[in-house]
Amino acid sequence: MAELNKLTLSEARDLLRKKELTSLELTQSCLTAIEEGSKLNAFVHGTADIAVERARAADARLAGGDAPDMCGLPIGIKDLFCTTGAPSQAASKILEGFVPEYESTVSQKLADAGAVMLGKLNMDEFAMGSSNETSVYGNAINPWRDQQTELTPGGSSGGSAAAVAGDLCLAATGTDTGGSIRQPAAFTGIVGIKPTYGRCSRWGIVAFASSLDQAGPMTKSVRDAAIMLEAMCGHDAKDSTSADLPVPNFEAALTGDIRGKKIAIPKEYRMEGMPAEIEQLWSDGSDMLRDAGAEIIDVSLPHTKYALPAYYVIAPAEASSNLARYDGVRYGRRAKIEASEGITQMYEKTRAEGFGAEVQRRIMIGTYVLSAGFYDAYYNRARRVRALIKKDFDDVFQAGADAILTPATPSAAFPIGAMETMDPVQMYLNDVFTVTVNLAGLPGISVPAGLDKNGLPLGLQLIGRPWEEGDLLNTAYALENAAGFVAKATKWW
Amino acid sequence: MSIDTATAARVAKLARIKVEEAALPALAEEFNMILGFIEQLNEVDVEGVEPMTSVTPQRLKRRKDDVTDGDQQDKVLSNAPDAREGFFAVPKVVE
Asked: Are A452 and A230 spatial neighbours (Cβ–Cβ below 8 Å)?
């Protein structure tokens, strides 16, 4: 069978169960694709030995006949997840050489379900970025190109997006603090879901902003997202914010029937200067859902405009606290100091050498907004605004909306380096449609829905009620069916 | 609110990140740009709104105060830049 690496999770699962394929064949096909795809710079640490060992174990389990859905399926893991015996650096110089003695709960759950880890995936340093250009490993490259121009796969889960879109693996894990799953998914023509805050355990995932961070799958189809999300979810005593709720069978929710569902269109997302193509895609998406039997309603989320500024107080504040642990004492890199220097110089040099510019910027902004005299003016005010943003969503769902439809990103993927001369705020605007969802703790999914005039993928975002990922996935499934997005990047690598 | 180089230096010190004197003006300028963006929050009427502590109304789970982990000194020290005799080693802290 040719090009097994191009299979979806569900196709591969069915072939494995029918014994028409072995996990070892599938895994080797991906390992070859990873080698050939090195120009994408998506995989940054290979774990071929672990992969082959897990593939053999999966084949034995499949032969036994009671294998879970993910059994034998080769996937990539974002570098933010700690994985036993495999480098886990959060794409930072400060964690150079760090090899965890423990496994994150999410990657452990996937391993327990029989999934095969192929390696670790590129990302923005500490998940801070929207273009994968802040990584110590260098830029990840989008498999999609505009003529000959190299484009960013988005960020922070840029390596995950590039790897899935380029068929280097069947699916990948991502994490999303302000849009880091959904924006790269939209930029590369794949599906990415951030579940409700608390669905996936955060234990063992390098922390960025703890009240916003969530893990989720990045896949080639909505069905795959349902399958993989189910394997990643569940209560974990090691994360005190992990929800003690049963995990439904998400795949079983995919009926494609959305008749009578109310889909809300929030007027505040019609931003000034929004490209006509994005506006067209959004209205096409709403027509598709209406044609599928849903009722389209206009709603207002009045505090939308304040989501990004609130995020750029709260996320840096939490990051400054979380990243205080990188001090060159217990793990990672330690700077050399002069004989006359002491421990404070050691901390200061270690952090100056180990953190990149964007991470330093956010730590210092966070330090400032939490410092004496400014805590109320910035941090507490931002947390109050956050409460109002959440209330906006509560009101819309209270009024009967089942899901909210918005664009996923304000543009298609942009060229590598395009933001270099801009101020940092311009890069932050990439998350304008996604960041509200993190602030409100809601589930959000990005679905590829069309191409722009240059032939680049564009995505639509659906936002669901808390804990109703099944219903959200089903609406996304109906949108996917109607949009019929099948385009793939032409292989140039 | 405008940040001068002295404030930028103080923030860098609090964050324990060494910033060269020459880099402070550019850093202060960046802070001002980002804080200018954040200033929009002052337009919002937040009177009577409680600062959010948790997105889901939840009470953190409690468990019995039992020892559930430990006795892993080798593993704990395995990634240390400098570990000696079962301890993390750091430059001299007291004279």
From this structure: no
Residue A365: strand pairing partners: none
Q: What is the pLDDT of residues B46-66, one digit of tens each?
A: 999 999 988 987 777 888 999
Smallest CA–CA distance, residue B70 to chain A, in Å, is 13
- Note the pLDDT tens digit of each residue in A149-185: 999 999 999 999 999 999 999 999 999 999 999 999 9
Q: What is the per-residue pLDDT across A234-283, written as a single tens digit (0 to 9) for each? A: 999 999 999 999 999 999 999 999 999 999 999 999 988 889 999 999 99
Return the sign of the alpha-carbon dihedral for residues B78, B79, B81, B87. negative
Query: Does A385 contact B46 at a Cβ distance shorter than 8 Å?
Result: yes
Task: Please give the angle made by the CA atoms of A54, A58 and A63, to the nearest 5 degrees.
Answer: 155
Chain B closest-CA separation from residue A486 CA (Å): 36
The angle that helices B5-14 and B24-38 make with each other, rounded to 10 degrees, is 90
Q: How far apart are CA A157 and CA A161, in angstroms?
A: 6
Token code pair at residue A281: 């895609």
List, as one string, the DSSP characters of A145-194.
EETTEEB---SSSHHHHHHHHTTSSSEEEEEESSSTTHHHHHHHT-EEEE
A253 touches chain B (CB under 8 A): no
Instruction: Indicate if the pLDDT at residue A107 is higher than 90.
Output: yes
Q: Are A153 and A141 in contact (CB under 8 A)?
A: yes
Selected for mutation to probe chain A from B27, B50, B52 (highest A CB count within 10 Å) is B52
pLDDT in tens, A330-346: 999 999 999 999 999 99
Q: What percent of chain B has pLDDT over 70?
A: 98
The domains located in chain A, with CATH, are 4-259+475-483 (3.90.1300.10)
Neighboring chain B residues of A364 at a CB cutoff of 8 Å: 8, 11-12, 15, 17, 27, 31
Residue type, A407: P
Q: How far is CA A32 from CA A169, A178, A294, A325, A427, in A?
A: 10, 33, 44, 38, 35
Strand-by-strand arrangement of the A457-464 sheet: A43-46, A116-121, A74-78, A171-176, A214-219, A191-194, A444-451, A457-464, A403-407, A262-266, A295-299
Mean pLDDT, chain A, integer: 97
Q: What is the pLDDT of residue A1?
A: 56
Q: Do A311 and A438 meet the contact criterion of CB atoms below 8 Å apart?
A: yes
Contact at CB, A331 and B54, closer than 8 angstroms: no
A180 vs A201: CA distance, rounded Å: 17
Nearest to B92 among A310, A342, A351 (CB): A342
DSSP A199-248: SS--TTBPPS-TTT-EEEEEESSHHHHHHHHHHH----TTSTTS---PPP
Out of B27, B52, B92, name the one closest to residue A383 (CB): B52
Return the pLDDT at B95: 67
In contact, A171 and A219? CB cutoff 8 Å: yes
Whether the predicted pLDDT of A327 surpasses 60: yes
Tell me the average pLDDT across A191-196.
98
